[in-house]
Design a protein that fits this description.
- The protein is globular, with a radius of gyration of 25 Å.
- Helices cover 52% and strands 10% of the residues.
- The strands form three sheets. Strands 1-4-5-8 form a four-stranded mixed beta sheet.
- It is α+β, with helices and mostly antiparallel strands.
- It contains 20 helices and ten strands.
């Protein structure tokens, strides 16, 4: 059962209300929709495998032209375009499943498909009324174009004011000038959604649909990052690129990031390409762990009998279960992306939750596989070892922590938004927040095990304590906006509480044959999450006791001295006292 349009689980969590009623019963995919999704998943996985070799794509750092040619001729560029308008008409959750299935075969290919469907031209359709621009988008999609979203600039992704400038040239048209970098699909895109600032108003940041055949548009370079080899990532230049009036997306707020139409589209799209890749990577890592544990032994003892190995595997399985649960909550039951309050906060929080969990799984997999881990798949094949691409997935997983915003920065931004939204001014519900009564009915525990019922009570209590901490921080810190250690802990705490909540809600609703296994996964995840939360509490209690971090950092950054006081920067390592 989806939340009502005016209700979001996280919005209440931020002010100490644990809305268990919103999570129950946990949403399930209708069987007919699941059947449609199964067909799409099977089809797209086979399509990617048919048109590229994932190992070659990683080694060559490019996706083959035959893949792009086949993709332009396929239906996989129109995953959610309505059937009557030439698409597959997939639901949000099935579109996610399809993108993740493609990423399971090739991280780069899945990310490219997710970029186009999640934040490219198809993503605009829910926000476009009937008219010339919608007709243009549908026409271009029918032509088989590949698209992307060009937002990041050389000054960084966290800047509110683009340096690409859109200058009015009359009749509603604009001329775009400036650079974009790290643009997914930028090297191959036929159409791009481009953000640009309009002169005379620093707050104005509008969106423009740009045909890459336009005069003045140039791919400056294809960019290689430390993972996702083959992704058509590019640095772009716009030199007085003319955008006609019928390709201008006007933002009613003056900044598309705050617009009630475009930000929900972007939040949903980031789930497709970022969380879709994260789930695919983590799922592959689980299979690699199982394969390795089954066939290896140490001192004649099978790996699966060692306690440390069992704990590592269990934590990884539980993390993937939590990722999947979070995605299901965010995407099942409500496909209305034009409603700004329809789980938008929840979807934004899912980015860090899924990518950090993916990283934990990939990191554990690298450690578990040891000698077979850091070696490339090609090198393994040369010596006859199982050519599991753990090293590649490790690189890919690390990149995802940066994609869409560096993880610690995303936590800080989330905390800033929380305090601006809920604690400035202080909420009128302070008496409720400070009450010993948790204000929630936890009698509806469904099929939760005894351990998970204890986790449920602990989660509700932690939500209330979190709000108390936020009230205290808002009261005690006039300089809270610059206390980034505190803000990062606040943002990370929200993510942990959110994940625990949806995991427990899913476990409470589960009545399947693997019920006991589901309860066990929920218990493992919540036990680990509670330990992570306990580690964040000292920063929530004060957070500004940084010791001499500031002095050490300033001395290093602002001088040419070595850490031991010398004039060198690295020779001190080899120098005796």
């Amino acid at each position: 059962m989806p939340a009502r349009p005016d209700e979001q689980f996280l919005a209440d969590l931020m002010v100490g209300r644990f809305r268990w009623d919103l999570l129950r019963p946990f949403p399930r995919q209708p069987e007919p929709d699941r059947t449609v999704g199964d067909k799409a998943v099977h089809g797209i996985a086979g399509f990617v495998a048919e048109h590229l070799d994932p190992r070659s794509a990683d080694e060559d750092r490019r996706l083959p032209q035959r893949f792009y040619d086949a993709l332009r001729a396929s239906d996989y560029l129109r995953l959610q375009v309505p059937v009557e308008e030439g698409g597959l008409g997939l639901s949000d959750y099935n579109a996610f499943r399809a993108v993740s299935a493609a990423a399971r075969v090739s991280s780069a290919a899945g990310f490219a498909i997710g970029t186009h469907n999640g934040i490219g031209l198809p993503a605009l359709l829910p926000a476009l009324p009937a008219g010339p621009l919608r007709d243009l988008v549908l026409g271009r999609l029918a032509d088989g174009v590949i698209s992307g979203w060009a937002d990041t600039e050389p000054v960084g992704a966290g800047n509110d004011h683009p340096t690409v400038v859109a200058t009015p040239v009359g009749a509603g048209a604009y001329s775009l000038t400036g650079d974009k970098v790290f643009i997914s699909n930028g090297a191959v895109a036929d159409e791009l959604i481009v953000s640009a600032a309009t002169p005379g108003d620093d707050s104005a940041a509008c969106l423009f649909v740009v045909d890459t055949r336009s005069a003045g548009f140039r791919v400056v370079s294809v960019q290689d990052v430390i993972g996702f080899n083959g992704l058509p990532l590019a640095a772009l230049r716009f030199d007085r690129v003319l955008v006609p009036a019928d390709r201008v997306l006007s933002s009613p707020t003056g900044n598309w990031r705050l617009a009630p139409l475009f930000e929900p589209v972007s939040a949903r799209g980031r789930l497709y390409l970022v969380s879709g890749a994260a789930l695919a990577i983590a799922d592959s890592c689980l299979e690699f762990q199982r394969d390795f544990v089954r066939r290896r032994a140490v001192n004649g003892v099978p790996l699966g009998r060692y306690g440390a190995v069992r704990e590592l595997v269990a934590a990884s399985v539980a993390d993937v279960f939590a990722m999947d649960s979070t995605i299901r909550w965010c995407l099942l039951g409500n496909d209305d992306t034009t409603n700004v309050t329809a789980r938008n906060l929840d979807r934004r929080a899912a980015k860090n939750m899924t990518t950090l969990a993916c990283w934990r799984v990939a990191d554990r997999t690298m450690s578990l596989l040891a000698a077979e881990g850091a070696e490339t798949a090609h090198s393994k094949a040369r010596r006859g070892a199982p050519a599991l691409p753990v090293e590649q997935l490790f690189r890919d997983a690390r990149v995802l922590r940066i994609t869409g915003g560096v993880d610690f920065a995303v936590d800080i931004w989330a905390a800033e938004a929380l305090f601006a939204r809920s604690y400035d001014p202080l909420p009128s519900t302070i008496s409720e927040i400070e009450s010993d009564d948790l204000g929630v009915d936890l009698s509806d525990v469904g099929g939760l095990s005894a351990r998970n019922r204890e986790h449920l009570t602990a989660t509700a209590s932690a939500v209330r304590q979190f709000a108390r901490d936020c009230v205290r921080l808002a009261r005690d810190h006039d300089d809270l906006p610059i206390q980034q250690r505190i803000l990062a802990a606040v943002g990370r705490s929200v993510g942990e509480l959110f994940a625990m909540s949806v995991v427990l809600a899913r476990a409470a609703s589960d009545t399947g044959e693997d019920h006991l296994h589901v309860q066990a996964m929920a218990d493992v995840f919540c036990s680990d999450a509670r330990r992570r939360l306990a580690g964040l509490q000292p920063d929530l209690d004060g957070g500004n006791d940084l010791g001499e971090h500031g002095m050490v950092a300033d001395n290093w950054v602002q001088s040419d001295r070595g850490p031991n006081g010398g004039a060198d920067t690295c020779g001190w390592l080899a120098r005796p006292d």
